[in-house]
From TrEMBL:
Main location: membrane
Organism lineage: Eukaryota, Viridiplantae, Streptophyta, Embryophyta, Tracheophyta
GO molecular function: glycosyltransferase activity
Organism: Dioscorea cayennensis subsp. rotundata (White Guinea yam)
Intracellular or extracellular location(s): Membrane
Protein name: O-fucosyltransferase family protein
Length: 512
């Protein structure tokens, strides 16, 4: 009996150790993409899930006619930029006070918040303080507006629309993020509903401005409606998004360098420095520019955990993602009630690197296609990307194209890295995202505005095709091509409740 009690007690201790060890020693459970394999690794390198399709994709033959059609630009759509108010902008001589906004989320969510902040300042006849960007809780990035966007350009483009200041005058210097973090303040508005109307701001924020001369709105993401907004306010949002927001010079310079190396490739050489790279690029320029596809993979751990789908990493990966949901979102995101098959057939699972590779190959991109990988981190690292790289060996990213010295100003800063990807993606011949999200939405909108080719994966179709394990390459290729004929950047007019930043027509675009 005593022996049994000791055994039972020992089992309890072991169980408790398993529960507390991830808290006491989190590094033991970190994914392989960040460090070496852990003692209790969540990462089991997945095997390809679509071997038959991969074999067909590797052996694919693409006709010259199909290649030409793939790379050809979109036909003119008969629309032009339409971002200035019909009667011309008018800046008031006196404003009601100062508006502050505190923006969370990643780069593209913050970008949309900035556009809305300008619009709200216009609605309230207020002076806008350069928006404050919160520290990103996932990427731990503290980059400020001034670190990412060209403030002088921002103020200059909007100078005829609203007054904008970098900092508050001394009499309001007390109105800081820290001031609002420690107590309830009369000047903070935290009740703004999602997609609030213009009238809501006039009824609820204007009185605060008139009483105190300042109002701080937080949270602010998605706090202005897309419908029933005056035309001049809609056009102002477009003007901010497509004209006023440009990146700081060093991001644009790095982006231009990467674009040049994608169009005029440099053969890899160990220890190559900036001078060697530039000399080689200059030699290649005489051969004419090449084309490239920008691929936003969006396959980080945060996304994988949020989707509740199975990505082939086995039981260890499923448990790790479930624990991540519990710790990061504290129960706000739960395991889905649907099976993986049901989620995939509904188009609710992000495409894995293997699957996005099969999509590109079936559309007609051959093994000589240059891919620019626009992603911050890939969950699982190189093991997860290997099938994609097998299909597209000429795959590049920031680190493969730039020197350590060039990357120094942006390394370790998620928002700046995302800004570089945004800049390069806007210059690509074709853009495609592996799943919907803020980057996808921002790119679709901006490239629609510029009439650039952007492939939108048919998620439901692809989910159903990938579930069919008996489908051969020819049938898969035909089904994919048929399902994507009208998903390559053609104009789609915005519908009720849809975002003006994803669907800029007709609000931002007029007939020629």
């Amino acid at each position: 009996m005593r022996s049994w009690n000791l055994s039972q007690r020992g089992g309890v201790y072991v169980a408790l150790l398993v529960l507390v060890l991830p808290v006491l020693c989190p590094s033991l459970f970190s994914p392989l993409g960040h460090a070496s394999p852990s003692v209790f690794s969540e990462w089991n390198a997945p095997k390809p899930r679509h071997l038959s399709l991969l074999k067909g994709a590797v052996q694919r033959q693409i006709s010259d006619e199909q290649k030409s059609e793939l790379w050809s630009p979109l036909a003119p759509n008969g629309l032009k930029s339409c971002v200035s108010p019909a009667n011309g902008p008018v800046v008031p001589k006196n404003t009601q006070g100062y508006i502050q906004v505190f923006l969370d989320g990643g780069l593209n969510q913050q970008r949309m918040g900035i556009c809305d902040a300008v619009a709200v300042a216009k609605i309230l006849n207020a002076t806008l303080v350069i928006p404050h960007l919160e520290v990103n809780p996932v990427w731990k990035d503290s980059s400020s507006f001034e670190d990412i966007f060209d403030v002088d350009h921002f103020i200059d483009v909007l100078k005829d629309e609203i007054p904008i200041v970098r900092d508050l005058p001394e009499e309001y210097a007390w109105s800081t993020r820290e001031y609002y973090a420690v107590a309830i303040r009369a000047t903070r508005v935290k009740t703004a509903p999602v997609h609030a109307s213009a009238n809501w701001y006039l009824e609820n924020v204007l009185p605060v401005l008139q009483s105190y001369g300042i109002a701080a709105i937080a949270p602010f993401s998605h706090r202005l409606a897309f419908d029933n907004v005056p035309e001049d306010i809609q056009r102002l949002r477009c003007k901010v998004n497509f004209q006023a927001l440009i990146f700081v010079p060093h991001i644009r310079e790095l982006g231009e360098a990467l674009i040049k190396r994608l169009r005029y490739p440099v053969q890899p050489q160990s220890g190559a420095d900036d001078e060697y790279i530039q000399t080689t690029v200059n030699k290649n320029i005489n051969r004419g520019p090449g084309k490239f596809v920008a691929l936003h993979l969006r396959f980080d751990k945060d996304m994988a955990a949020h989707s509740a789908c199975d990505f082939g990493g086995g039981k260890a990966e499923r448990l790790a993602l479930a624990k991540y949901r519990q710790i990061i979102w504290q129960g706000r995101v739960l395991n889905s009630q649907f099976t993986d098959e049901e989620l995939r057939s509904q188009g609710r699972c992000p495409l894995t690197p293997e699957e996005i590779g099969l999509l590109l190959a079936s559309l007609g991109f051959d093994s000589q296609t240059r891919l620019y990988l626009a992603s911050h981190k890939v969950y699982g690292g190189e093991a997860r990307i290997s099938s994609l790289r097998k299909l597209f060996p000429l795959m590049e990213d920031k680190k493969s194209l730039a020197s350590e010295e060039e990357l120094r100003k942006v390394e370790g800063k998620a928002s700046l890295l995302a800004a570089v990807d945004y800049y390069v993606s806007m210059q690509s011949d074709v853009f495609i995202s592996a799943s919907p999200g803020n980057m996808h939405n921002a790119m679709v909108g901006h490239r629609t505005y510029e009439n650039l080719k952007t492939i939108r994966p048919n998620m439901a179709l692809l989910g159903q095709l990938f579930l069919n394990k008996s489908m051969d390459w020819y049938d898969f290729q035909q089904a994919v091509q048929d399902g994507h004929q009208n998903r390559q950047g053609q104009i789609r007019l915005r519908k009720t409740k849809q975002s003006i930043y994803t669907y800029p027509a007709p609000d931002c675009m007029c007939s020629r």
